[in-house]
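Reading a protein record of the kind used here takes only a little practice. Each token is a code from a learned vocabulary of local backbone shapes. With that in mind, consider the following protein and its fold in token form:
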Amino acid sequence: MAKVEAALYAAGRPLTVDEIAHVAGTASERKATAVAREIAKMINGTMQAVEVVEYPGPKFAMQLKAQYTQTARKFATRPLLSKAALRTLSFIAFFQPITSSELVQRRGSTVYQHLKELEEVGFVTDERQGRSKAFRTTGRFAEYFGLSTDLTAMKRQLEGRTLSLR
């Protein structure tokens, strides 16, 4: 049931009974439909803003109830961080500890706004180094992106991800 619930949540579209059966690990459309209906009953009975709807076909979709779309729309269009802030974060992660002056040289003066964003979400921390600040990533950063907290291991992970993106 948990796998089907996760699939309904992540899909963002109605899933066919065949898709649900595949996720549930069964060949029976009847069992898949029963599982989807059980999840719908559970979610529709407990959740206030989210529902599971059965469409003809049958297909099932997890969706926001209509009366909450305006509220959700205010938040759905804002990413956690801008692309520019993510680039700055990648420099900090790879070159940490890195001073603000080094970041300005590499990324430009807009880096100060990025640093503010990154500190607000708890992904970086700073420490004084003379007249400048040196920035490091936090445990929250490592957890959020699924990285090691060990710097050497983290850098290897980051290098591997960079190479796989090329």
